[in-house]
Amino acid sequence: MKHPPLRAPGLASDRPASPADGLPPAPAMGLRPPLPPVMVCADMAAATTALEAQLGRCRRQARRATVLWVQGASGAADDALPDLLQAMGQRLRHRVRASDGVLQVAAQGFVVLLADADAAAASGVCARLRAVLQGPYRGAGGRAAALLPLHLGMAVHGSDGHSAQALLLLATLRAAAPD
């Protein structure tokens, strides 16, 4: 049975409905919605506030949460650092789920909230992120630059703390600790 094409309300012609008619476009088959952008925070206080909101959503949905602190020590010049941080943020955003939050904290590093991940799952994510994020990056002018070494720290909501501030502090301390 063939169905007639969708028509915009009040449309007298036989042409199919389009976004110009006020209807949303039909979803393309096999395409995912775009990932949420990397949120840029001016400092740790702003990151803590944003993280607290994301943790609140996890608590309301009864989901486990793990906070990661990702910091790349760069040997690049200061003028190349913003480009490298943007590339690292995009690589990081594409390596975690769309439901996970990614925050860039100025030029210091990144906070990742893994929604619905316990310590074992987060450990696996850390290992994969370490392998992917340590690779070479292209800086300004196309020359290769690497962000090495990469420091990762993890704190699990519940067992390591309940507030965003406590979890973020513990994750940064664990990232700074020697391996």
Please characterize this protein's 3D structure.
The protein is of the alpha+beta class and 179 residues long. It has one domain (39-176): 2-Layer Sandwich (Alpha-Beta Plaits). Helix content is 32%, strand content 23%. The chain has a 6-stranded mixed beta sheet with strand order 1-3-4-2-6-5, sandwiched between helices. Strand 3 (101-105) and strand 4 (109-115) form a beta hairpin. It is globular and about 45 Å long. The chain starts with 38 loop residues before the first strand and ends with a helix.
What labels describe this entry?
179 residues; six-stranded mixed beta sheet; 4 helices; single chain; alpha+beta; Alpha-Beta Plaits
Q: What structural class do helix, strand and pairing data support?
A: alpha+beta
Which percent band covers the strand fraction? 15-25%
Q: What is the CATH C level class, in words?
A: Alpha Beta
- How much is the radius of gyration in Å? 21 Å
Helix amount, in percent? 25-40%
Instruction: Estimate nothing, just give the exact number of structural domains.
Output: 1
> Counting H and I runs of at least 4 residues, what is the number of helices?
4
The total beta strand count reads 6
Q: For the record, what is the CATH homologous superfamily label?
A: Reverse transcriptase/Diguanylate cyclase domain
Largest sheet: 6 strands, mixed
Low-confidence stretches: 6-11
Overall geometry comes to globular
Q: What's the rounded overall pLDDT mean?
A: 79
List the helices and strands in order. EHEHEEHEEH
> What is the CATH topology descriptor?
Alpha-Beta Plaits
Kindly report the spatial arrangement of strands forming the biggest sheet: 1-3-4-2-6-5
The name of the CATH architecture is 2-Layer Sandwich
Distance between the termini: 64 Å
